């Protein structure tokens, strides 16, 4: 069976495990902080993805340092070395599960900077390619009461503007210092259930839309 219709639209499948291939989900946090709550949430999300039948890759943005985006730098030196491996990681996964910190009501600078560099075109590829047919689930953790929920509104808009399909399911984990168990699960059963449901939906939709 062909993966794409004659119009280039992704063929919808019935199951993420059809033809024996699991939906591959790239999980990462928008924080590089050693004790980051969002890093713990990304780990919890990766486990939930695996339990939902997907294949999770846990990525750490600390391993992908990039300069702040500067158009002059790009014009004179092209893409920084670290961008192409990131583009490949995005392209070789069917979905993303992003745990985003909230800074002043928006996403973190390191996350926005990463998404911006990944969206830059190369001589042979449009900038939207790493985001094409990408299904994305969002979550956030914060010591505050709202759990970083406001930042997800901005992150959703950014991802939609580059062509990703962002699921309506999401979760925000407040009082993050006491929100995780030692195994990086969510102590609140209701929140863990939301995470599990979001992961299951991500694995299902990403599996159906995979190219
Ligand atoms: C510049 C800055 C702005 C922040 N703004 C918010 C905010 O708007 N809402 C919020 O809930 N927490 C805010 N915080 C607190 C972060 O949620 C907290 O530092 C959190 O631990 C960051 O995520 P991490 O643990 O994954 O690194 C802010 C922190 C910084 C450094």
Describe this structure in words.
With 211 residues, the protein is of the alpha/beta class. The protein has one domain (21-209): Rossmann fold (3-Layer(aba) Sandwich), CATH 3.40.50. It is 36% helix and 15% strand. The protein contains 6 helices and 5 strands; from the N terminus they run βαβααβαβαβα. The chain has a 5-stranded parallel sheet, with helices on both faces. Helix 1 (37-51) links the parallel strand 1 (24-29) and strand 2. It starts with 23 loop residues before the first strand and ends with a helix. The model is unreliable at 1-17 (pLDDT under 50). Flavin mononucleotide (FMN) binds at residues 29, 31, 33, 36-38, 101-105, 142-144, 148.
Keywords:
211 residues, Rossmann fold, globular, 5 strands, alpha/beta, binds flavin mononucleotide, disordered N terminus
Summary of the model, kept short:
Helix 1 crosses helix 6. With 211 residues, this protein is α/β, with parallel strands linked by helices. The protein has a single domain, classed as Rossmann fold (3-Layer(aba) Sandwich), CATH 3.40.50.
Query: Strand pairing plus helix content: what structural class?
Result: alpha/beta
CATH architecture: 3-Layer(aba) Sandwich
Main beta sheet: strand number and arrangement? 5 strands, parallel
CATH topology type: Rossmann fold
- The total strand number stands at 5
Kindly provide the radius of gyration, computed on alpha-carbon positions and rounded to a whole number of angstroms. Answer: 17 Å
Strand content: 15-25%
Categorize the overall geometry: globular
Spatial sequence of strands, sheet with the most strands: 2-1-3-4-5
Element-by-element helix/strand order: EHEHHEHEHEH
- Counting structural domains, the number is 1
> Unreliable segments (pLDDT under 50, ≥5 consecutive)?
1-17
State the separation between the terminal residues, measured CA to CA.
12 Å
Q: Output the CATH class name.
A: Alpha Beta
Separate helix tally: 6
Q: Give the CATH superfamily.
A: Flavodoxin domain
